[in-house]
Amino acid sequence: MQLTDAQRLDWLRLIRTEGIGPRSFRTLINRFGGATAALEALPDLTQRRGRRIEPPSRGQAEDELAALARLGGRLLATGEPDYPRLLQCADAAPPLIAVRGHPNILNRPAVALVGSRNASTAGLAFTERLARGLGEAGLAVVSGLARGIDARAHKASLQSGTIAVMAGGQDRIYPATHAALVDAILGEGGAVLAEMPMGWEARGRDFPRRNRIISGVSYGTIVVEAARRSGSLITARYALEQNREVFAVPGSPLDPRAEGTNDLIRQGATLVAEVQHVIDVIGPIIERGPDPDAAPARQRPDLAEQPDFWDEIELEGRVFSIDGSPSGFSYEAPPIESDEPTDDRQKIIALLGPSPVGTDELARSAGVGARVVQTVLLELELDGRIERHGSGAVSLLSR
After folding, report:
1. Is residue 74 part of a domain?
2. What was the pLDDT predicted at 327?
3. Do 266 and 374 belong to one domain?
4. In terms of residue numbers, what domain contains 160?
5. In this predicted model, what pLDDT tens digit does every residue of 322-364 receive, in sequence order?
6. What CATH number is given to the structural domain containing 174?
7. What is d(CA 299, CA 269) in angstroms, rounded to the nearest whole number?
């Protein structure tokens, strides 16, 4: 299928209508036979349910397309050749998705790599090793452009191919400090995806929406570091709902950043200690083709306590559901303000954990000089907060 320009405008107007999400969009298309007829019927239909809702005008839709084009992007629709085939198989896949970069990467076999924003140095180093190994095996690396694990995954796979999924619009990079990373992804043959409209500032509740796209374009999701109730575990839940593989990197039981990943392993996720552990599971699935329903039955983690997916877009405090049923959203959205450490000492402490790390790697992850690291480590040692190991490695003592 390939939409005409007129059809694309109608699809955009319909999905941008207040309260219309992926499921409501499909219900309307099926009921009325197309977006044009659905747009004509929607105002009267919503008025009968208590509140008349008018779709965006054709001019507004044209303005959004023009703004996206100025950034070098375009909209892909489900069923079109460049739309990610795996994502199309997922429940609640976005009818339209904005893409910048190289769309050919969207249908390469891919694996998601996600984890803590406040990652440890050990977690960052292992993420880099995984991302490079996955790239060498011919797999694209997918992540969410967040600080910590996500950013390291993208940076380590720039040469081999990476896909970033944004929570806001294409012109609203979050965090803003990753604008240079986005430029690098686009310049190295990668792609950046966004479901939300141009100009849309990411809110806390938009990140779960983003997460189901991260898992949706991937054959499997690897969680490197995640505390309990972490957003990365929401990505893992979506992977399960989409019948994709879930992997977890084990961590120290003394590190809260490993509680979620260790729970995943205990509940049946595949333990990952090297890249080959991922290849052994993903390889046969890729050979069978892009149908996720062909994946073999295996023990799956139980993530029933993770929050439900919030499907529809909320505007002005109201949610419209085409079948009259209420939309549920129980995710306690974290604040999206940056909680990045503000000084060198805080940065270094945040990167330390129970697992020993070398001072060179610590300096690289913190973005500071070796002398600064040694000074901070000396202070921490005098305070009895770190333990020194062989070859200059250090670890944080639990309190």
Report:
1. no
2. 29
3. no
4. 85-294
5. 222 222 222 233 334 444 555 788 878 888 888 788 888 888 8
6. 3.40.50.450
7. 8
